[in-house]
Specification:
Elements: E1 3-4, E2 12-18, E3 24-30, E4 33-39, E5 42-49, H1 54-64, E6 74-80, E7 85-90, H2 97-102, E8 104-106, E9 114-116, H3 119-122, E10 134-135, H4 136-148, H5 152-156, E11 160-169, E12 172-181, H6 184-198, E13 205-209, H7 215-223, E14 228-231, H8 237-246, E15 249-255, E16 258-263, E17 268-269
Parallel strand pairs: 1-6, 4-7, 10-17, 13-14, 14-15
Antiparallel strand pairs: 2-3, 4-5, 6-7, 8-9, 11-12, 11-13, 15-16
Helix pairs in contact: 1-6, 6-7, 7-8
Length: 279
């Protein structure tokens, strides 16, 4: 059992703004806070975050960076907003941490993300479940649910959102959790942390993000064992290459009943009548 604080910050703050007529309008804006992550008293990184799920964010970050091998290694996660820090303590120190931290790769993540160690080499060992299938009707239902979901973005803008979902019928899907943060990489890390804390397996899940599908987003989704990655945005060449390598089904520009399948098309099952093409 991991000892956790419950130190969520408010997602939005109200400030005064003036409209085009010079009228003062109370307006919600997104929170943003620095959070320095320490692992066994060693400083790892400072994250700029909404602060809505800091404990899950810290766990997910360490998970996706392969700095912690399992939730069982973690003894406690303590967030202290007076010092803008989160301290993660392991039950037993893990060897090789210093060597892993020596190699840093600055990524295209919002605010410039960082990958530690040789994650690009380690993806060679990842194999996603080949038998997983997703019906187009289930995909459309998920896209519609995300569209209707009450979000911080609708209140204040300035955030990215990620959802973990599962299918629950021939034509339906269920959003299990929806996390927003000032950077999309923070949102996916928080979901990775929640998955560990709640013992959720990714093999039959769908991951949705409002952000673009870059290499680090694909790597994180693959490390979480999720075979389906969906975005309303586009993708990068390296993201495409890695998705092909690990056998991940990647769908981009997904909106309404439109999408493009870039990799793993064999997992997508067409169950709905297709529009007739007219010359």
């Amino acid at each position: 059992m991991v000892k956790l604080t419950n130190a969520a910050r408010p997602a939005t703050f109200e400030v005064e703004a003036y409209n085009e007529r010079g009228e003062m309008v109370p307006t919600a804006i997104a929170g943003e806070h620095p959070l320095t992550l320490y692992l066994d008293k060693r400083e790892i990184v400072t994250l700029m975050t909404l602060g809505h799920a800091p404990e899950a964010l810290a766990i997910g970050y360490l998970r996706n960076q392969r700095l912690v091998g399992s939730i069982d290694e973690i003894e406690a996660v303590q967030v202290d907003w007076e010092t803008d820090s989160v301290a993660v303590t392991r039950r037993k120190p893990r060897k090789g941490l210093g060597r892993r931290l020596q190699k840093r790769t600055v990524t295209t993540g919002c605010g410039q993300g960082t990958m530690f160690g040789d994650l690009m080499e380690e993806i060679d060992a990842i194999r996603l479940p080949e038998a997983a299938r997703l019906a187009d009707a289930q995909l459309f239902d998920l896209i519609e649910q995300v569209r209707k979901h009450e979000t911080i973005y609708k209140q204040a803008g300035a955030v990215h959102g990620c959802a973990l979902a599962r299918t629950c019928g021939p034509a339906s899907a269920e959003i299990m959790m929806f996390v927003e943060d000032v950077g999309r990489h923070n949102a996916v890390d928080a979901i990775a942390g929640f998955m560990w804390l709640q013992g959720i397996d990714g093999a039959d899940k769908i991951f949705y993000t409002t952000g673009r599908l870059t290499s680090e987003m694909v790597i994180k989704c693959a490390q979480m064992g999720i075979p389906f990655l969906v975005s309303r945005s586009g993708l990068t060449h390296m993201g495409h290459q890695i998705a092909n390598k690990v056998g991940l089904t990647m769908l981009g520009r997904a909106s309404g009943r439109h999408y493009l399948v870039f990799t793993g098309a064999e997992r997508l099952v067409k169950t709905l009548p297709q529009p007739t093409a007219f010359a």
